[in-house]
Write a structure and sequence with these properties.
alpha+beta, five-stranded mixed beta sheet, HATPase_C_sf, ATP-binding, kinase
Length: about 425
Amino acid sequence: MTGDKAAQTAPVFAGRRWFFPSALLHELDPDASRSGRRPRRTARDWIVDFACFLLAVLMGLLGAETLSNSPHLSPALVAADQLIGALSCGAVWLRRRWPLGLAAVMVPVSFVSETSGGVAVIALFTLAVHRPFRYVAWVAGVQTALVPLYFWWRPDPDLPFLASVVLLVVLTGAIVGWGMFVRSKRQLVLSLRDRARRAETEARLRAEQAQRLAREAIAREMHDVLAHRLTLLSVHAGALEFRPDAPREEVARAAGVIRESAHEALQDLREIIGVLRAGESEDTGRPQPTLAALAALAAESREAGMRVTLEQRVTDPATVPASVGRTAYRIAQEALTNARKHAPGTEVTVTVTGGPGEGLTVTVRNPAPEGDVPHVPGAGQGLIGLAERALLTGGTLDHGPGPDGGFAVRARLPWG
């Protein structure tokens, strides 16, 4: 099941891998998490990292221009500052592998090097995206505490001391807030994806359980029918055994019944192959409904308060195979039950048409209910079971809303 799940999930990201960050893709893609290696950069990662590198270089150049206009700094200090800034810009490419280490190192480096300020901002943002808030709080807190000391050591010639401190503190808070927002958005994507995976797994398990229950119910019905056929065959065979002197007409009639019962038992046995049985201790003597019981089903529904119209246009209904008749009855029964739950007060039309060689068609329709209808919870297990019944008899079943807002169930069953 794990392999099937991975095969179903991987195509979702096959065409959009470049759009996701490598860390997020590593969590979304099951194949990436099995390798045990650090996720490789995606095309999006390269674009973002190169943009961060250019931004750090640009801010370093602006800082270098500010240093060149400071008469109180010696050329040696300016050159050392620019060298440190260049090394810091190269360290931007390490921000994904060591976000906490880079951010912690950049706190003292940016304090002594003005051209490293852009790298410190990028490192703090990366830390906020990739690590929990407690690490971000420590690094950002230390960096904020050094702000007044930094401007006391290197005052800004264009802004007052207080304005410079407030501006840099606000910028630090904005960077941290933006990074935490990106992190929470990524966590939301992972949460939604995990929720969708669980929902798909639960839906698949419910569908498998519904199919299994439907197969078990069909197996019980087939067992009952086979018991009836074989009992009938045994009775007539026993009569021939104990009355060998019976008239030829009775012998011929009993032989015909035996032949017909054996033929129908073989047909039912073919249907039961592959169907799981629920148990051996079930009652095997209950009668099974057939197509002739549809009239009684409609009358029973009318007595329950439904408006049911039954239209039967079946050629020679007495020759409908028992298994097909049972399936048609169960489909009509489940469809009427659904209409009573989800569309109370509407007129339900049950139409049965067909003939030998052309198949049997069962259609149950109801219009949209009027007014507000109370919501009745349901997981669609009945419809899954009906589809399984139709499939096991060699037919098909489809269902869905109609253009008028109503609902229709249509089954086509073989009758050859």
